[in-house]
Amino acid sequence: METLGKLRRRHLVKGESLSAIARDTQLSRNTVRKYVAMESGEPRYVRKHQPFPQLGPFCERLAAWLVADSQRPVRERRTAMRLFEALQQAGYGGGYDSVRRFVKRWQQVQRPAVTHAFVPLAFAPGAKYQFDWSHEVVELGGVPQTVKVAHFRLCYSRRALLVAYPRETQEMVFDAHHRAFASWGGVPVAGIYDHPRTLVDAILVGKERQFNRRFLALMNHYLIEPMACTPAAGWEKGQVENQVGTLREWLFTPRLQFAHFDDLNAWLARRCQELEQRPHPDQQDRTIGPRFEEERVHLRPFTAAFDGYVEHPLRVSSTCLVNFDCNRYSVPAAHAGTPVSLRAYAQRIQIVADQQIVADHSRSFGRGQSIFDPWHYLPILERKPGALRDGAPFQQWALPDAIRRVQERLMQQAGGDKAFVELLLAGRQQGLEPLEVACALALEQGTPTAAVVLNHLHRWLSPRPLPTLPTPAGLRLTVEPQADCARYDRLRQPEVSHAH
Question: What are the backbone dihedrals phi and psi of residue 211, each rounded to the nearest 5 degrees, phi first?
Answer without folding.
Answer: -75, 155
